[in-house]
Specification:
The longest helix has 13 residues. It is globular, with a radius of gyration of 16 Å. By secondary structure, it is of the alpha+beta class. The chain has one domain: Alpha-Beta Barrel (Multidrug-efflux Transporter 1 Regulator Bmrr, Chain A). The two termini are 15 Å apart. It contains 3 helices and 8 strands; from the N terminus they run ββαβαβββαββ. The chain has an 8-stranded antiparallel beta sheet.
Length: 165
C-alpha cells in the first residue's frame, strides 16, 4: 500500500449506471463494463476519430462511484476513459468526469487478484488498522503498459486508487 497525491483530473469517456454485471458476470466484453471499454476504444482508434490524438495517453481509467443503491441493488456508476487537458478535447458525444484533488491509498493488484475482491479487501483492512477514513465514495483503476489484456491477466498489474482523508 502506498499513499499518493493526485491533482484534479478531467476525464473524457463513457459512463453507465446500474448493475454492471447484469448481462454477464466477470471480466468480459459482454457485460456493461466491457461494452463501455469497447465503445471507448472503438472511438479512440477509429481513423477519423475526433479523439484520435488521445490514443497517445499512457493511462486509462475505470471509475466506480458508489450510490445509495450500491449495497442494496448492486448498482454503480461506472465510467471509463482517459485524462484530457480541457473541454475542447472532447466531442459532444462523450461524457466528462471531474475527480477532485485528493490523497489516495493505492493497492497494486497482480495476476488473478485483479479480477477478485482482494484489492478492496486489502484497502478495507488497511483503513481499519491505520485509523484513516475514505474521503469520497468512489475508487478507480488505472490501466497502463503493465496491463496486458483480459487474455493475459496472469502477466498483468493494475493500480486501484481509493481517496482518503
Amino acid at each position: 500500500m502506498k499513499i499518493v497525491e493526485r491533482e484534479q483530473m478531467l476525464l473524457a469517456g463513457f459512463g453507465f449506471y446500474g448493475d454492471p454485471f447484469n448481462g454477464k458476470a466477470g471480466w468480459t466484453e459482454e457485460n456493461e463494463i466491457g461494452i463501455l471499454w469497447s465503445r471507448f476504444m472503438g472511438l479512440l482508434f477509429k481513423p477519423d476519430s475526433p479523439i484520435a490524438h488521445l490514443k497517445e495517453n499512457k493511462e486509462w481509467f475505470e471509475v466506480w462511484i458508489e450510490t445509495e443503491e450500491s449495497a442494496e441493488k448492486g448498482f454503480f456508476e461506472i465510467f471509463v476513459g482517459t485524462q484530457v487537458s480541457g473541454y475542447e478535447d472532447v466531442p459532444y458525444t462523450m461524457q466528462m468526469k471531474v475527480l477532485p484533488k485528493a490523497s489516495y491509498a493505492v493497492v497494486t493488484a497482480h495476476g488473478s487478484s485483479i479480477k477478485s475482491e482482494e484489492p478492496y479487501i486489502e484497502f478495507q483492512k488497511w483503513l481499519k488498522s491505520s485509523g484513516t477514513e475514505q474521503k469520497y465514495k468512489y475508487n478507480f483503476q488505472t490501466y497502463d503498459e503493465r496491463f496486458r489484456g483480459i487474455d493475459k491477466i496472469a502477466e498483468s498489474e493494475l493500480d486501484f486508487y481509493f481517496p482518503i482523508k
